């Protein structure tokens, strides 16, 4: 099915340059995009964690849960170590993260059938014997599902934070102006941190709790629901393309509501 957004106005809250890429897809699908990057992402590795990069051959698997993690990992690897040991197996949470991996000349040995940490943790241990150790590459706000599952299954692992996410306070005025002057049909959130930032930057965020909110996956939808957003749309495929298709389906079907589980 070809997505068509019928000139609906869509607020994009993810960080650049991904915000502009998302906006281009929305425009091509017949929508009107308003870019307000609510978060900043910066690569950062603590000094005491650099040893993980310097002994990369020590790991059986490296698990990446985001494209940001991939980019920042290789940036740090090239800075603090020599190279990737090709004997180490790689896992990514989804095809977009794997696409980021291929830019560095590598391909994921494992991608789950559903692109979220819960499915990844189950399928990863279900279909293979993992002795470890494993290196989890993450941001400082990443969820703890994988850590908890590996711990329960007595699989040794190290956790390496390679980027930090902060609220983009400089976008506050633009965000408020757009929401006041434009009729935004859909607000999009691509991570729990974008939901947090929206709430932080909009003191009257309660005014938008009935607005159609499109979340990239169930984890993001859960965070939105915790703040009281009632009209949640979650795509079958946890990608921005899936989000656009979900909006198009919603428009064509004239759906009244969608409650995230």
| Count of separate structural domains | 2
Strand composition percent: 15-25%
* Strand elements, count: 10
What best-fitting shape do the alpha-carbon axes yield?
Answer: globular
State the major sheet: 5 strands, parallel
For the record, the CATH architecture of the largest domain stands as 3-Layer(aba) Sandwich
Radius of gyration, whole Å: 19 Å
Structural class: alpha/beta
Helix content: 25-40%
* Order of neighbouring strands in the sheet with most strands: 2-1-8-9-10
- How many angstroms does the end-to-end distance come to? 25 Å
Oligomer status? single chain
Low-confidence stretches: 256-261
Output the number of helix runs. Answer: 10
Order of helices and strands: EHEEHEHEHHEHEHEHEHEH
CATH class identity of the largest domain? Alpha Beta
Mean pLDDT: 92
Walkthrough of the structure:
The protein is an alpha/beta fold and 261 residues long. The protein folds into two domains: 9-38 and 168-253, 3-Layer(aba) Sandwich (Rossmann fold), CATH 3.40.50.10090; 42-165, Rossmann fold (3-Layer(aba) Sandwich), CATH 3.40.50.10090. Helix content is 38%, strand content 18%. It contains ten helices and ten strands. The strands form two sheets. The chain has a five-stranded parallel β-sheet with strand order 2-1-8-9-10, sandwiched between helices.
């Amino acid at each position: 099915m070809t997505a068509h957004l019928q000139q609906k106005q869509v607020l994009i809250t993810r960080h650049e340059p991904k915000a502009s890429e998302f906006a281009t897809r929305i425009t091509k699908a017949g929508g009107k995009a308003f870019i307000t990057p609510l978060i900043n992402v910066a690569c950062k590795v603590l000094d005491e964690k650099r040893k993980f990069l310097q002994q990369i051959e020590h790991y059986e698997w490296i698990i990446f849960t985001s494209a940001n993690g991939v980019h920042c990992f290789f940036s740090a690897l090239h800075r603090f170590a020599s190279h990737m040991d090709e004997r180490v197996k790689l896992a990514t949470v989804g095809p977009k993260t794997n696409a980021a991996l291929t830019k560095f000349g590598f391909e994921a040995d494992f991608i789950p059938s559903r692109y979220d940490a819960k499915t990844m943790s189950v399928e990863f241990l279900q279909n293979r014997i993992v002795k470890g150790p494993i290196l989890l590459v993450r941001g400082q706000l990443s969820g703890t599902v994988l850590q908890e599952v590996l711990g329960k299954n007595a699989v040794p692992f190290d956790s390496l934070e390679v980027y930090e996410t902060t609220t983009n306070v400089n976008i506050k005025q633009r965000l408020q102006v757009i929401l006041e002057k434009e009729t935004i049909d859909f607000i999009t959130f691509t991570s729990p941190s974008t939901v947090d930032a929206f709430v932080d930057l909009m003191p009257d965020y309660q005014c938008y709790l009935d607005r159609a909110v499109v979340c990239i996956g169930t984890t993001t939808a859960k965070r939105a629901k915790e703040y009281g957003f009632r009209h949640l749309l979650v795509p079958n495929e946890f990608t921005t393309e899936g989000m656009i298709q979900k909006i198009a389906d919603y428009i064509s079907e004239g759906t009244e509501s969608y409650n995230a589980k």
